[in-house]
Amino acid sequence: MKFAIIAAGQGSRLVAEGVGVSKPLLRIHGEMMIERLFRIFLENDAESISVITNEEMTDVHRFLKQVKLPVPLNVVIKTTPDSLHSFYELSPFLQGGKFCLTTVDTIFTEKEFSSYIRAFKEDNENDALMPVTDYIDDEKPLYVKTDSDLHITGFFDEATPGIRYVSGGIYGLNGQALALFRQAMTEGLSRMRNFQRLMIGSGLRVKAYPFSKIIDVDHESDIRKAEDLLV
């Protein structure tokens, strides 16, 4: 399976709090976040890994230049307006089957991720299998409404009664979902969460996969939370 990482955000809140390296190079238990994802993807049989980073993070460029992986590493250096456009820049490398895309600051346990990837590989019924969590600690979470079988029926900006989960920032998609995405981009789609809504509105089969906890590292205080999760 192909894997991809969006590592294109500025990490402005971390910089404002005095963190001195670009977000992808931030260490959790001594391991850089981007390096950790490379390792976990390879342990889950990645056939290729694609990364996008912005033009300003020269420390990340230097790191990526010296990385040696046993599978193809595709690197895009481009500043984009948002994660949706970053995904679009990566999409040519993700054609031909299922793939998993994640943001660089998404922290999860390796055991849960491996179980998820195994379930995603074996799932022949759905066009997307989306990790969700009932641990809500994000500034602007995307709430995920599901039915009793965990099929996703809607994505919402606000919490409403009966919604248990939020999106985890990990996307498992097949070729049909990718084709819809590329078509929608040509029609002026904006924001990743609007693509998720479009999948539901277009009749794609989208299912939730619960994780116990997923942490986004947006603030310095999140580093400790991430390290506590991975103890």
UniProtKB/TrEMBL annotation:
* Domain called MobA-like NTP transferase: residue spans: 4-137
The organism encoding this protein is termite gut metagenome
Q: Name one Pfam family in it.
A: NTP_transf_3
Keyword terms, alphabetized: Nucleotidyltransferase, Transferase
Q: Name one GO molecular function term.
A: nucleotidyltransferase activity
* InterPro entries reported for this sequence: GlmU-like, MobA-like_NTP_Trfase, Nucleotide-diphossugar_trans
Q: What is this protein called?
A: MobA-like NTP transferase domain-containing protein
